[in-house]
Specification:
The protein has 307 residues and is α+β, with helices and mostly antiparallel strands. The protein has ten helices and nine strands.
């Protein structure tokens, strides 16, 4: 294929997609108005059957609302969620990265920002010293279902936690509710989580990257499930950490919050070795300060909890 032909191919547009964008652009520019099928079709120079198909799908998905009484269309709630997600992504990414780079430089380690995107956990930012193998990479995804994802609901509401627990497990998992809620209370009080360094857990985490576990054969899922400890078992409680003794630590994690007080990102600082309890506290304090700074800079706020 010649260069001119490649250029034309790269710039080729999709008329059906253009028509969908036309409809959305027109309504977004007039957020306080509602329009009927005939008016939209005539104004946008789209055939009525095509316009009806576009409007029906967008309304079904929540991007538009349809008033059945007068048969008019306007903007829908899904656009609010999409707009907030985009705003969060543009605003939080660079802000989080700036703070993570400072942490990586101070502690000579990898730091990440990640979040639940759709029904998967996605790594959004990774920082760390040049020349070392990073503990994660941008774009890495993990299933958001037990036993994976506790820290993404840990600092949210009890309802969020229970909803996560109710999801179909990505692997067979044991649930000790007393232990789990002890972990939840402890981490909410401290504002951070300390995960123990467990070679089996580390290997499992690596294996889970990018895997759609429900597509695995049942015998493989069962085998992987045997590697999984009870939920929250690999989290250190405050009472477990002695300031003078060394403890094998995988990572430390802390949350950021959005404007509604909902948990947004999880920032992590990788340790990958044994450190004293006082060093854990020093690193955790720095990580929480970074997470709090990100929350403040995006106009977020920590949730108010009832005790």
């Amino acid at each position: 294929m010649g260069e001119l032909e490649k250029s034309r191919s790269a710039g080729r547009q999709s008329p059906p997609t253009e028509r969908v964008v036309q409809v959305l652009d027109y309504l977004v520019a007039r957020p306080d108005q509602r329009f009927g099928l005939s008016e939209l079709a005539r104004t946008l120079e789209i055939s009525k059957p095509t316009a009806l198909g576009i409007l029906t799908v967008l309304a079904d998905r929540g991007y538009l609302t349809r008033d059945d009484a007068v048969k008019t269309y306007g903007l829908g709630p899904a656009l609010i969620a999409a707009g907030r997600a985009a705003q969060r992504g543009f605003a939080v990414g660079p802000i989080a990265r700036a703070h993570l780079e400072k942490l990586s430089a101070e502690f000579d380690t990898t730091c990440t920002a990640s979040a639940v995107v759709g029904d998967r956990i996605s790594v959004l930012e990774v920082t760390g010293p040049e020349g070392i193998r990073k503990a994660a990479r941008v774009g890495q995804v993990y299933p958001f279902a037990p036993p994976v994802g506790l820290m993404y609901v840990l600092w949210g509401s009890d309802h969020d936690l229970e909803s996560w627990l109710a999801r179909e497990p990505s692997l067979p998992v044991r649930l000790d509710r007393d232990r789990l809620w002890t972990v939840v209370r402890d981490c909410r009080d401290s504002g951070y989580l300390v995960e123990s360094l467990d070679p089996i857990g580390q290997r499992l985490h690596t294996l889970m990257a990018g895997v759609v576990t429900h597509d695995l054969p049942s015998e493989v899922r069962e085998l992987l499930g045997e590697m999984v400890s009870s939920l929250g078992e690999r989290v250190y409680l405050g009472r477990d950490i002695s300031s003078d003794e060394e403890h094998p630590v995988s990572l430390i994690a802390a949350p950021t919050y959005d404007a509604e007080g909902h948990q947004a990102l999880v920032l992590t600082l990788y340790v990958g070795g044994s450190v004293t309890g006082s060093e854990i506290e020093r690193r955790a304090t720095a990580l929480v300060a970074a997470a709090d700074a990100v929350t403040a800079e995006v106009g977020g706020r920590a949730p108010v909890r009832s005790h």
